[in-house]
Amino acid sequence: MSPDNMNVISLAVWTLENNCFAVYAGMLVCFVAFTIFHKNLVEARCSRAAVKQQRSPPGGGWEREYRDDQDDPEQLLPALPSDTPHVPYQPPARPDCELVQRSREFYELMATRRTVRRFSTEPIPQEVLDNIIKTAGTSPSGAHTEPWTFVVVQDQETKAAIRNIVEEEEELNYSRRMSRQWVADLKPFATNATKPYLTDAPALILVFRQTYSWREDGKKRMHYYSDVSVAIAAGILLAAVHYCGLVALTSTPLHCGARLRALASRPGAERLELVLPVGRPHAEARVPQLLRKPLRDIMINV
């Protein structure tokens, strides 16, 4: 090492030894300054993200297609006519005693609803299927977008094709995709990758969620809260199925949506949410003897 380099190193060591307080203070100031700068940078990014989220309509996870749509009046036209009439709503007025009776009767009816995995092959009258789907269609939806499509399958070949797709994917789900705990939790229900009810049940109802649709003027009609809206409609559908004396199975097979959507010839904007086998219970149908949570565990009065 050259003498010049030694002199530089010696000077640096002497400076650190005799001015250590100043050096450490300078390092501390730099650290604090960097921390404050980084904190402000993170807060600014979070603030911009929050503003962007507030500006994005809820319910579909979609992003604004046109960034400058505020400047185009046509983009601000409501999907429904602005002059949509409002009419009086006067349901029957019922005394408290009747309200109590009707609420108790409906609860006692719905308390007997069970998920069934063995179905009779006896067909269902078409009018019954029409009525339960119409009932599901009375569900509320975000901005009255009615973001649901109910595909009713009664053709035996199509049901067999659905079963093949579901069983292929379920075999992979049970063997690879689902956690061991998940598979263990399903054992009391005696369910596995084989799904005979998909061909035994006289009707399958495929419940699709429309993420968006198209207006008559050719512009995209966004669907707000489509997931919640379809979930409510599915609940009303299950109640209608049970009320008319039929049974159903709420099936949500993993990784089947795209293939079943293609089989049903539904557009890419629709997402499969449920496959509901519907029919009469098989004469030898059995269900687990389960207890539901008591009212005190599911209701809080404030």
Explained architecture:
It contains 10 helices and 6 strands. With 302 residues, the chain is of the alpha+beta class. It has a 4-stranded antiparallel β-sheet with strand order 1-2-6-5. It has a two-stranded antiparallel ribbon with strand order 3-4. The radius of gyration is 31 Å and the shape is extended.
Order of helices and strands: HHHHEHHHEEEHEHEH
Q: Major sheet: order of its strands?
A: 1-2-6-5
Shape descriptor: extended
Task: Give a short account of the largest sheet.
Answer: 4 strands, antiparallel
N-C termini distance: 81 Å
Mean of pLDDT: 84
Parts with pLDDT < 50 across at least 5 consecutive residues: 50-68
Number of strands: 6
Number of helices: 10
Cα-atom radius of gyration: 31 Å
Beta content: 5-15%
Q: What is the structural class?
A: alpha+beta
Could you estimate the helical fraction of the residues in percent?
40-55%
Set down the secondary structure blueprint.
Elements: H1 3-18, H2 20-55, H3 96-110, H4 126-136, E1 148-153, H5 156-177, H6 180-186, H7 197-200, E2 203-210, E3 212-214, E4 220-222, H8 226-243, E5 247-248, H9 257-263, E6 270-279, H10 295-298
Antiparallel strand pairs: 1-2, 2-6, 3-4, 5-6
Helix pairs in contact: 4-8
Brief overview:
With 302 residues, the chain is of the alpha+beta class. Helix content is 46%, strand content 11%.
List keywords for this structure.
single chain; two-stranded antiparallel sheet; 302 residues; alpha+beta
